[in-house]
Amino acid sequence: xxxxxxxxxxxxxxxxxxxxxxxxxxxxxxxxxxxxxxxxxxxxxxxxxxxxxxxxxxxxxxxxxxxxxxxxxxxxxxxxxxxxxxxxxxxxxxxxxxxxxxxxxxxxxxxxxxxxxxxxxxxxxxxxxxxxxxxxxxxxxxxxxxxxxxxxxxxxxxxxxxxxxxxxxxxxxxxxxxxxxxxxxxxxxxxxxxxxxxxxxxxxxxxxxxxxxxxxxxxxxxxxx
Length: 225
What we know:
The protein contains 7 helices and 11 strands. It has 225 residues and is an alpha/beta fold.
């Protein structure tokens, strides 16, 4: 994906209802048992290939890697300060630490990661419905709007919200979500996501990266081959 890849990626963008323009194709930074050096290397390679939109979260443990890789490409002069779009999911109480990890004064889009709270559960077990606790959407929504007012983010959004939860949120929200990582409606941008998976991940599968079509595309566009 070398050569003109950066230009191609920048040609395919979406403008959010908060005024931010983001690339349609993003790079997720979750991996179970996150290895900071490996994650940082992956992000650096993604930046070289033209990715300008990165998704991270407090629970991923990848925020420092994202911050370091972003700083290095800016210092190298490969991108301007505001070109790399960062989308995060973080608890409000941890947002300032998140910004410190990312070496940023603000993030581009700040999301609620789950519309529920998780009780303690085994890391690689998929929780059952009765293991979720209700989320106070109104308090959380007002808190995120406050973060927006304070300049800690340029846009706010949600993740894994159903259309019903979106409607409930809009009943009291002063600022509508700019993004939903699940389904889109009412001018809210849908940001789809998918895990590449790995043998040491929760699903213990490498089926995606071993898919013949995926491998063909990767080898065809590999800038290091």
